[in-house]
Each structure stands twice: as structure tokens, then as C-alpha cells.
Design brief:
The structure is a single chain. The protein is of the alpha/beta class. About 35% of the residues lie in helices and about 15% in strands. It is built from twelve helices and nine strands. Strands 1, 2, 3, 4, 5, 6, 7, 8 and 9 form a nine-stranded mixed sheet that branches. Helix 10 packs antiparallel against helix 11 and helix 11 crosses helix 12. It is globular and about 55 Å long. The N and C termini lie far apart (about 45 Å). Its EC number is 5.4.99.30. One of its GO terms (biological process) is plant-type cell wall organization or biogenesis. Belongs to the RGP family.
């Protein structure tokens, strides 16, 4: 009986999940998340000035990396990790040794459901990741595996087992994840709609992934969760998570994996400056008109049987097809290769898989 009680009180995936947080400031926001995050290990990636001291509330189990640590650990390969941009968070994915990752921004707080109850976002993400996805046939009741739901009439029985879920993409109340032009047109708009739904994004459909409330199975898709070259020294920002999302979706479609979006919600508390955002996004707004058709047209060869092989193939296609849009994509393609090399150095099991051993 004592063992049963102990098992029931153990947080799900306690020893199998890391929480990755990019930040430039003290992490006071963790106090609100303490009931949900305290049992888990945190990986904090400090952006900006490495001489600045970041304070973490007591009681949390964490490791903190700044730019000096990144340079020391990766050497010349540290060039693939963005500086002065939240894209630096992907370094945390690389150094983690856990199967699952949850990443959240430091301006995201605990949201309440319509009944007023605080939402344990992490718990819902875990449920999403441990539950199959259905990318090959759309269920009009959305998530068929939730309590009180099922597959509707006409859904093929041969597809009801689903596929492994690689990514759980959560949403946000209050400040929407808008681009700069939309922010400028709708400066006071707030998202107050709580939609109690989870759905699998269909195969062949891209989506704009947001990194502020995101969980994924590191073993299944980790090497593709590269947030690109953004921020300091780069001509673009704020496309880091979307780039990773497009790459992940194409690779998940190829490898037979699923991505879910919807619940859980967090409360996004701070709107970034739309004029600053416009400067960061300006080129991306034009480039995405070429980037989206590029990803929509990709067919990966059957020889690409691992995430690493898929990602290296993507890097070749980026260099071949997108470098004509701007020389930046040449540099990005090279960084994608460097990222995989660094990933495999720190995760030798993954390297063995990539080589087909």
C-alpha cells in the first residue's frame, strides 16, 4: 500500500524530462510554476552578457549555461548557437540527457481554465506526448484518445492505432503570438478564448511553431529541433522556432511521427515591442513566401531513415534551393550541418544511429 501511494504521488516522467528556459533576467517567474516544475531538472540557457548573474529561486534543481560555457563545451562548433536571441535555447536540448524536453519563456505564467483552476501545462504536454497521433486521417472530434471521445464513424480501423507523438505544441492566453505587422494593427488585441481541444496536424500540412510553450520527445525528433541562426550578427530574428517547426514537420511526415497542437495553455504576460520585432522580422516576412513553398515541395529520399540523415539532406536542399533567395541561407545550411555534428559529439548514441549502426 505504501508503494502504491508513493507511485501515485511521483510526478510523471520525473526522471525522464528536462525543462529548458532561455533567459536574460532573474527567474522570479518560476515561483508561480513551483508546484509544477520543482520536481523536475531545469536547464537554463543564459543569453547575452555572460558576466551578468542570473538568480534562480531556491529549491529548484538546475544547471545554468552562459555563452562562455557554450564556447567552452562546443569550441568552434559554438558558432551554430545563436547569440542575443531566444534561439540559444536549443543548446539546452543538445546537452540534455533526458528523453523528453519542455521549453517555456520567462514571460509565461500559469493560466487558468474556464473554471478558474490553474492549468498544469507540463502535465498536459506529457499526456499529449505519451498518446498517439493521427496524421493520416482527420478525426472530426479532434483528439480521439481523450476521455469522452473516440474515432468517428467512417474512420479507418487500420489507422486507429496512430503513430508516436514527437511534438506537443501548446498555446497561450492573453498576448497572442503575432508578427510585427499584426501587432502594429492590433496593439490591444488579447486572446481570451480557451478552446478545449487537441488535434494532430495532418501529414503534408505545415504550421507556425511557437517555442514559448512546447514539448517534444528528444529521442524521436531532438536533432531536428535546431532553432537556426538568429539574433546578433544575423539578418533575421523571431523565425527560430518556426524554422525548427517546418524542419520537424517535414521530417515527422517522412518518418511517420505525429505533432499535436492545442492544449495546454499558458498565460503570456509581456508583449514585445512591435517596432523592434519588425526590424528583426523584416526580411523573414519576404523570405517566408519562398521558404514555405520550399518546405511544401520537399520529398526526402527513403535512405533517410534517421532524424540526423533527414536533417543533413534538408541542409543540402536549403543550400541548393534557398541560397538564391539570400546568401544567409548558405550560412544557415552550413550551421545545420555543424549543429548535427555537435549534437552527435555530445550524444554518441544518436551518432551511432545516424551511421546506421
Amino acid at each position: 500500500m505504501a508503494d502504491t501511494t508513493s507511485a501515485a504521488s511521483t510526478p510523471p516522467l520525473k526522471n525522464e524530462l528536462d525543462i529548458v528556459i532561455p533567459t536574460i533576467r532573474n527567474l522570479d517567474f518560476l515561483e508561480m510554476w513551483r508546484p509544477f516544475f520543482e520536481p523536475y531538472h531545469l536547464i537554463i540557457v543564459q543569453d547575452g552578457d555572460p558576466s551578468k548573474t542570473i538568480k534562480v529561486p531556491p529549491g529548484f534543481d538546475y544547471e545554468l549555461y552562459n555563452r562562455n560555457d557554450i564556447n567552452k563545451l562546443l569550441g568552434p562548433k559554438a558558432s551554430c548557437i545563436s547569440f542575443k536571441d531566444s534561439a540559444c535555447r536549443c543548446f539546452g536540448y543538445m546537452v540534455s540527457k533526458k528523453k523528453y524536453i519542455y521549453t517555456i519563456d520567462d514571460d509565461c505564467f500559469v493560466a487558468n481554465d474556464p473554471s478558474g483552476k490553474p492549468i498544469n501545462a507540463l502535465d498536459q504536454h506529457i499526456k499529449n506526448l505519451l498518446c498517439p497521433s493521427t496524421p493520416y486521417f482527420f478525426n472530426t472530434l479532434y483528439e480521439p484518445y481523450r476521455e469522452g471521445a473516440d474515432f468517428v464513424r467512417g474512420y479507418p480501423f487500420s489507422l486507429r492505432e496512430g503513430v508516436p507523438t514527437a511534438v506537443s505544441h501548446g498555446l497561450w492566453l492573453n498576448i497572442p503570438d503575432y508578427d510585427a505587422p499584426t501587432q502594429l494593427v492590433k496593439p490591444l488585441e488579447r486572446n481570451t478564448r480557451y478552446v478545449d481541444a487537441i488535434m494532430t496536424i495532418p501529414k503534408g500540412t505545415l504550421f507556425p511553431m511557437c517555442g514559448m510553450n512546447l514539448a517534444f520527445d528528444r529521442d524521436l525528433i531532438g536533432p531536428a529541433m535546431y532553432f537556426g541562426l538568429m539574433g546578433d550578427g544575423q539578418p533575421i530574428g523571431r523565425y527560430d522556432d518556426m524554422w525548427a517547426g517546418w524542419c520537424c514537420k517535414v521530417i515527422c511526415d517522412h518518418l511517420g511521427l505525429g505533432i499535436k497542437t492545442g492544449l495546454p495553455y499558458i498565460y503570456h504576460s509581456k508583449a514585445s515591442n512591435p517596432f523592434v520585432n519588425l526590424r528583426k522580422e523584416y526580411k523573414g516576412i519576404f523570405w517566408q513566401e519562398d521558404i514555405i513553398p520550399f518546405f511544401q515541395s520537399i520529398v526526402l529520399p527513403k535512405e533517410c531513415t534517421t532524424v540526423q540523415k533527414c536533417y543533413i539532406e534538408l541542409s543540402k536542399l536549403v543550400k541548393e534551393k534557398l541560397s538564391k533567395v539570400d546568401p544567409y541561407f548558405d550560412k544557415l545550411a552550413d550551421a545545420m550541418v555543424t549543429w548535427i555534428e555537435a549534437w552527435d559529439e555530445l550524444n554518441p548514441t544518436g551518432a551511432s544511429k545516424a551511421k546506421g549502426k
